[in-house]
Amino acid sequence: MTDRPNYLTPAGYAKLRAEYEQLFATDRPALVETISWAAGNGDRSENGDYIYGRKKLREIDRRLGWLSKRMKAAKVVDPAQQQDRTRVWFGATVTIADEDDNERVLTLAGDDEADAGAGRVGWNAPIARALRGAAVGDLRRVMLPAGEREYEIVAIGYPEPERG
């Protein structure tokens, strides 16, 4: 794992935290109980509940460790609090157009929040790195698996801060 911060939105951090809590407080104790019951049934070498339970417990423990590391490295950034809304920074929703005037809307999110189908691109993805700091009208070149593409920044938006 690298030493760079794990940028997350408040919602992204809450999602990681919720998964950790679910695994630690509910799923793991229930599995430990099942394993204990299976261990009491005698021969463990051919006991499917015991063998599968131990395997599943290792997977949960691995996931808990990973979630713990990601949350420790987390730097929670609220895009609504962005001061410079004229440039592309973390949390920006950007409309870009390619050479053929095909437009795409992307939101620069944390790497753990990325979901290409929903238009959320990880902060360290090649296209996100190319767009960082750009203003409307700027052209940016991006090396993609299909080759180099040039995009123009058409619009930049950020969530509005909550009024309290």
Automatic annotation (TrEMBL):
Gene3D superfamilies: Transcription elongation factor, GreA/GreB, C-terminal domain, Transcription elongation factor, GreA/GreB, N-terminal domain. Keywords: DNA-binding, Elongation factor, Protein biosynthesis, Transcription, Transcription regulation. Residues 6-76 form the Transcription elongation factor GreA/GreB N-terminal domain. GO terms for molecular function: translation elongation factor activity. It comes from the Bacteria. Residues 86-158 form the Transcription elongation factor GreA/GreB C-terminal domain. Transmembrane segments: none annotated. Necessary for efficient RNA polymerase transcription elongation past template-encoded arresting sites. The arresting sites in DNA have the property of trapping a certain fraction of elongating RNA polymerases that pass through, resulting in locked ternary complexes. Cleavage of the nascent transcript by cleavage factors such as GreA or GreB allows the resumption of elongation from the new 3'terminus. GreB releases sequences of up to 9 nucleotides in length. Belongs to the GreA/GreB family. GreB subfamily. This is Transcription elongation factor GreB. It comes from Sphingomonas endophytica. The lineage of its organism: Bacteria, Pseudomonadati, Pseudomonadota, Alphaproteobacteria, Sphingomonadales.
